[in-house]
Write a structure and sequence with these properties.
This protein is mainly alpha-helical and 147 residues long. The protein has 3 domains: 52 residues, Double Stranded RNA Binding Domain (2-Layer Sandwich); 31 residues; 55 residues, Classic Zinc Finger (Double Stranded RNA Binding Domain, 2-Layer Sandwich), CATH 3.30.160. It is 44% helix and 11% strand. It has a two-stranded antiparallel ribbon. A hairpin with a 6-residue loop joins strand 3 and strand 4. Helix 1 packs antiparallel against helix 2.
Length: 147
């Protein structure tokens, strides 16, 4: 955040703060200049990420191999693609019918319903049934809201 924006926010001038951001976005202004090349950015974070090119730093490191990168999103894609892990949460509860895995047993329990014809959640107002409680609640709200 630029010094003017930070001051506006700290002084309680929220409207001035918002105006400075909107003005930058709509005018194409790029106040954050790289001191090592001609690159310029509308946000400080963009400059900060860009500076990694000049430093040669790769701050995002894979916990499973020697891969490292400059952007967190690239690391996320790498881990998903090469290590078959969607996030760092351990998922010990594995489905025996597909590749799905869950951190909690309840996640696996609900997932297993997708492989069956069982629909344990039944509407009290009609003959609708479904596999997940959230779908039953949505049905009742939409179809029987006045009941």
């Amino acid at each position: 955040m630029g010094k003017g924006r930070r001051a506006a926010l700290q002084e309680g001038r929220f409207e001035a703060f918002l105006f400075s951001i909107l003005n930058t976005l709509h005018t194409g202004e790029r106040p954050y200049q790289c001191d090592q090349c001609d690159a310029a950015f509308s946000k400080r974070g963009g400059l900060k990420t860009h500076l990694l090119i000049h430093s040669g730093e790769y701050p995002f490191k894979c916990n499973f191999c020697d891969y490292s990168c400059r952007h967190k999103s690239n690391l996320t894609v790498h881990i998903k693609k090469h290590h078959n892990i969607t996030n760092s949460v351990e998922r010990p509860h594995k489905c025996n019918q597909c590749e799905a895995a869950f951190a909690q047993p309840s996640g696996l329990k609900y997932h297993l319903l997708t492989h069956s014809d069982e629909k344990p959640f039944k509407c009290d107002f009609c003959d609708y049934s479904c596999r997940q409680k959230k779908h039953l609640n949505a049905h009742i709200k939409k179809q029987h809201n006045n009941s």
